[in-house]
Amino acid sequence: MLILETKIISNFSMETTNLHNTLLALLLALKDSETPLSDREQSDLYQVAEQLSANPKAWEILIEPRLLVMIQANEPLNQRFKAVKYQLDNLGDTMPLNLLPSKAELEQAVPKQKPQPTTRAIPQVSPSDLRSNEITNMAIKVLAAPNPSETAKKLSSFEQLQQFLNQNFAQK
Fold it and tell me: pTM of the predicted model, to two decimals?
């Protein structure tokens, strides 16, 4: 029984790490994007935000595959996404939480507009679980913004996160 429980926890941890790394890689790739997103791409990202808000457990089956198709169709975005995702995947769980944008920074960067998808409550849990909802909530807010690339560029914490990733990657 203990082996089964450990395997389930391990699989859940791998799934959430994939979710976090994919979302962070997308947000950082959007931040660096020099080409504006098309209306269709912005609509696709808004749908991702809505789906994440409604059912984050549908990530692997429904949300991620459609998101990856959209990313792959935009070659400059795809190249940057792959590079950042590789860095995040090789980082493990060593990313300091203080490198993520604060709630106040997000509120300032995300323009007030039509109702956004609701964010997930952040329960009183361990720091790794806390990061789970912080990253998902951050992604929901940015992806649901009228212009996700411009919103990501406004988050100064992303610059610190990129520097951390580059330094960490250079040391390996």
Answer: 0.80
